[in-house]
Automatic annotation (TrEMBL):
<feature type="domain" description="DUF4397">
    <location>
        <begin position="38"/>
        <end position="153"/>
    </location>
</feature>
<keyword id="KW-0732">Signal</keyword>
<protein>
    <submittedName>
        <fullName>DUF4397 domain-containing protein</fullName>
    </submittedName>
</protein>
<dbReference type="Pfam" id="PF14344">
    <property type="entry name" value="DUF4397"/>
</dbReference>
<feature type="signal peptide">
    <location>
        <begin position="1"/>
        <end position="23"/>
    </location>
</feature>
<dbReference type="InterPro" id="IPR025510">
    <property type="entry name" value="DUF4397"/>
</dbReference>
Amino acid sequence: MTTKTSRVWAIGALVTLVTGLTACLKSSDVTPQEPSSYFYVANASSALTAIDFFDNDVKQTSSNGFSFLANTIYQTSTGVHTFKVKKLGGDSTMATATNVYDSLELTSLFIYDLPTYATGIREISENFTNLSSTKINVRFFNLSVDAPAVDVYLDNIKIDSTHSYEGNGNNFYPAFDQITASTTSTIKLTKAGSDSTIAQINATLAAGRTYTIYLGGRKAFTDSRKLNVAYITH
């Protein structure tokens, strides 16, 4: 099946170093490598400046927690996993999600603000088929409850228009668009239909690579949880 083959190729890119090191060992010393599941985890919840992230009740974050708008690649064993988000250093569970994961899947977990301003976890089983090797593969998620609809620019190329908050129901659209550009240096979000900049960051996005851009934060905040944009490199 094409989808599975593509996922195996993508996962292989993540474990090339491990495989290379194992190949240097004598066959009698090699312990069979257990299958792993891989996750892209992004924190767009504006409830706190940092959170704790748990997998099957084992804390995976340092004492500094998982900062707002940060993202990371997380590797774990296959099987049933319950992910929990808790207040930094506390016992109060803010969000939870449980599923069965195998070694043929790459999954994205987005921690984000629900319409009620509570915290939720949205899971996307990634499909990296039909991506371009000559264009920038990119998608955008508006995860800010109170941000206006936005236009999204890579440098001066508009890649999305009037994109509203998508935390209602199943509005996450997982497909990637292909943008004709060799590299970009800026991601800019403006209020839809205007030149008013909502958020902007420097970012080098390259042709042949795949990215998720996401907006988080709240209009009223002036600390690190103010409206801002970040991106995942897949």
